# Entry
Amino acid sequence: MNNLVFTPAYQLAQMIKQRQVSAVEVLEAYLNQISQNNSKLNAICTLNENALETAKQADEALTKGEDWGLLHGVPITIKDIFETEGLRTTAGYKPLKNYIPIRDATVVARLRNAGAIILGKSNTAELAGEYQSVNDIFPPVNNPWNQDYTAGGSSGGSAAAVAAGFSPLDIGNDVSGSIRQPAHFCGVCGLKPTDRRVSSAGQIPEVPGQPKCIRQMQTVGPLARCVEDLRLCFTLIAGADIRQPDIAPVPLDTISDKSLQDLRVAWMDGWEQLPVASEIKSAMQTVAHNLTQAGVKIESWIPPLDIEEALQLSDRLIAYNFVYSQPMDFATARKRIPMIFREMTQGDKDLRKISNMGGYLPELLNPTLKGYFTALTTRDKLIAQMDAAMEPWDAWLCPVAMTCAFTHRPMGEFIDVDGKKVPYLLANGAYTSLLNLTGNPVVVIPIGFTEDGLPIGMQVVGKRWKEMELLNIAGKLNEIIGDLSPEFSQ
# Structure
């Protein structure tokens, strides 16, 4: 039973179709795992009461020769910011605590159409706006490997659920690292696709009925225990959507036939001005050594970008996105103002200048259309610059965050990085938000553990619109590095 809940989704689908196990047995295994452990982790916030009946229908369909799709009968979870028809969707926001959507988000509908069974919803940061999964409706999400530590955010419930064997597959979103940082913290795999590759129709933080405000840097992608599940899920959810016309009908790319020895891989363990914990650096260096030993052409490389200017541009665009998408009520302001104050006053002085929270207060307090368009124009230039810089490389490897999982703390409190006090947002988002800005697809894979037993992840960065090639490369690299996704056993 325990092994069943740690079986990849693609294998579960095969087992169900071949009658090696029933959809009901698989569902009950997950429900048992959740019942035994969720009270310690708070990863699942809502269960689907109709899931068992749907699993019975999936088994009956097979007896009639009916095939629902690639995920026939496989239970999955969905981050609680995606609308699920008939199933509570709160986004961790109190005014939505009893919200029951009448329609699925596009990605949810596509997974249901592929035969997946929605087991439940995974806990999240309020309105997906934090690097810890904390809100006023449900208890905070704890890290499966040490409950005193955060699972990350805003897809912390998603990552913890996959790591703990509550679900083989989850759907999250990522505007500044919300898939990748939790995947790194919890020791699972995650995919941030290219901008506008996957529809975000039916997604909150825009409260239902409000206009869609976040149209830049926002991506939707899967979290899973293996790269193969990321690949399977991505092929199901990617593509044009009539509900979101700016999702272009770009076909999935064709995988090249390059061997490992023909790949050109770049790597770095950090920018000089952005500290990275020594254990992460050491793990990255070990990866580079092992890939070299396997015959991969790997070179140390830092993109020719002004990283400080890029991060400040990212922060300005995020401010423009969130000033309209986030509610401006008293309760929200009461939480955000202390966070902004801590970000501006805590941490190393030079690093606070890079974080520059005070620099984009004007965008939060008095946003202008001209300022937004100016930031977008600068972003276009940076995307072109990154595209040109990435041209010689098949993939670029870099850290996910400055640290591994940290202890629960108030939003905005500094993070200790080997004795250096780093502003909260910078420590969590410096290495991820750049890639939302440039639009590159990224796969996170586990590469090791700290001395304290916390997982370490790594970003594998690809060229825009080349997700299938990137996933293929990430899978090959993962074979060399070894399957390091840990198994929850508490």
The two ends are 15 Å apart (CA to CA). Residues 88 and 302 are 45 Å apart (CA to CA). The longest helix spans residues 369-390. The first strand starts at residue 44 and ends at 47.
